Amino acid sequence: MRRWIARAFGFVLLACIAAAAFFFWPAGPETVAASAAQPAGAALVARGEYLAKAADCVACHTAPGGQKFAGGLAFRLPFGTLYSPNITPDPDTGIGAWTNAEFVRALHHGIGRNGEDLYPAFPYTAYAQLSTDDALAIRAWLATLRPVRAPVPANDLTFPFSQRYLLRAWKLLFLPTASPPHDASKGEAWNRGAYLVEALGHCGECHTPRNFMFGLNQSKKFAGAEQEGWLAYNLTSDPDHGLGGWSDTQIEQYISTGHADGRGPASGPMAEAVENSLRYLSPEDIHAVVTWLRDVPAQPDGPPAVQARSPILQTGLATGELGSRLFVQACAGCHLPNGNGRQSRWAALLGSHTAGDPSGTNLVQVLTHGTQVQTSQGLAFMHPFTGAYTDTELAALANYTMGQFGHQPGNITPDQIRKQRHADAR
Ligand code: HEC
Ligand code: HEC
Ligand code: HEC
Q: Does ligand 2 lie within 6 Å of residue 266's CB atom?
């Protein structure tokens, strides 16, 4: 009830600001020109491809099983469903007929071809900080893709959320007007890292909690947030909840390969971010991201990190209890009884934040929806276990995993399994 009132209040406020903003908000596309430093021809296209990967455009503009960049991915929001558009160069259903200026305006201001305001599920609050050169390079690469004729379903949003003009007010509050932080005294890697994380990688879209108006709560920057059923952990320098206890090498390994020794694998949406985007970054850029992350002020939020020093509660499999028996049957074939992973290091679970989170959010998500990541050694894959096991069995498996590899007593109930089992996964 309190949340409902807060929301209603939020929207009355939004409507008032919208009315005021309507009169002085200019919307025409600016003329855009690349700087003298912009490469041309094949070099420009290659640069655009690298940037589009760093910005992970493919993640949201590809429907499951659909053609890349042809759109149609459903975003299930609390007030209805929004579909991502086709951004292939098809002139009718894609963006082939758009001018460069219209394209840059979409990225910088969240405005569509006909001047309509776009929903921030499109992370233009991050892309607003892209240089015009980089936005144009991305366009140049997108223009070389094969056009796909693919109309996208109409959005299904309830009133008043269906009113795009309300977003003008939202943008006044949440669209950054400046470029990412720049501080000459911090050195080149730090500044490049700020650009990669804030403008391109949009890490905050998942890792920063939102306020009641769905804006990123910058006072809790990178403190961790839940989205679509997955918890994106605290990335701040806090040693107990964030990355403070990780070595530089562990963070570099994790984001560039999807696994870190002693920290477990990246699953779910993070595995996708690694697969589509982060594994393509150059070692210098990966280093830059880590340099910048190291400096994010500590926030003591979210589940505690698994301390490398804490002892494993028990390695024996002779306890005879349901969880340990099932683990040998169903999991040890890939993870090994001691969690070290057989053959593939992506199956090494020791120290995994997911195994150590007492809420079990991602742990249960992995069991009920599966996870996979494309690696340099092929696909590392775990199928969902919903077909073969009951809620009680999966709860026992989750609690056993938590005790063994997260060093936490597990309190996952069959009811939690049931709820997450039936929740929609994207
Ligand atoms: C996190 C998801 C997400 C990512 C990442 C993303 N987009 Fe989108 N994008 C969307 C959604 C959702 C919309 C539709 C918004 C709406 O209808 O209001 C959209 C809209 C657009 C539009 C407007 C198209 C039209 O027909 O109105 C363009 C252009 C676009 N995106 C380009 C890009 C590019 C280029 C990238 C990478 C640099 C990118 N997007 C990354 C989700 C995303
Ligand atoms: C689409 C959402 C999403 C985006 C975008 C995203 N992350 Fe994540 N991230 C997650 C989720 C979910 C997890 C938890 C994964 C798991 O359970 O294995 C995670 C985990 C992590 C972890 C491990 C933290 C821990 O304590 O285990 C690191 C490091 C990380 N992300 C860094 C980044 C960086 C850097 C970026 C931007 C370049 C980024 N993430 C972008 C969703 C996201
Ligand atoms: C077919 C091999 C296979 C089987 C069987 C398997 N897993 Fe996995 N599991 C993996 C791989 C590979 C990953 C990493 C995938 C990724 O990074 O997306 C993983 C990831 C996980 C994670 C995520 C850790 C994290 O930090 O995000 C957990 C927890 C997990 N498995 C537990 C289990 C349990 C419990 C079982 C038995 C019910 C099981 N697995 C069965 C291969 C397997």
A: yes
Q: Residue 387: CB partners within 8 Å, gap ≥ 6?
A: none
Centre of ligand 1 from the C-alpha of residue 47, in Å: 19
User: In angstroms, how far is CA 357 from the centroid of its own chain?
Assistant: 19
**For residues 30, 68, 266 and 280, what is the CA-based torsion angle, rounded to 10 degrees?**
-70
Q: Which residue, 45, 75, 44, 81, is CA-closest to 62? A: 75
Is any atom of ligand 2 closer than 6 Å to the C-beta of 281?
no
Rounded Cα gap, residues 419 and 426, in angstroms: 16
In one-letter notation, the amino acid at residue 250 is Q
Please answer whether residues 336 and 317 qualify as being in contact, where contact means their C-beta atoms are separated by less than 8 angstroms.
no
| pLDDT computed for residue 426 by the predictor | 44
Length of the chain: 426
Q: Which of 80, 82, 116, 112 is nearest to 99 (CA)?
A: 112
Ligand 1 centroid, distance to 371 Cα (angstroms)? 25
Asked if 420 contacts 364 with a C-beta cutoff of 8 angstroms, the reply is: yes
CA of 259 to the centre of ligand 3 (A): 12
Q: How far is the C-alpha of 264 from the C-alpha of 353, rounded, in Å? A: 7
| CA angle, residues 385, 391, 394, in degrees to nearest 5 | 50
Using an 8 Å Cβ cutoff, are 299 and 234 in contact?
yes
Looking from the CA of residue 164, the nearest atom of ligand 1 is: 18
Which residues does the chain have with pLDDT short of 70? 1-28, 308-320, 424-426
Mutate to test the pocket of ligand 1, among 122, 166, 207, 214 (most ligand atoms within 8 A of CB): 122
Q: Which residue has the tokens 């028996």?
A: 325
What is the spatial distance between Cα 214 and Cα 209, in angstroms, rounded to a whole number? 9
Query: What is the C-alpha to C-alpha distance for residues 358 and 347, in angstroms, rounded to an integer?
Result: 21
Q: How far apart are the first and last CA of the chain?
A: 28
pLDDT of residue 319: 47
Res 28: pLDDT: 65
CB 263 within 8 A of CB 351: yes
| Cα torsion through 213, 218, 222, 227, rounded to 10 | 10
Residue owning the nearest CA to atom 22 of ligand 2: 233
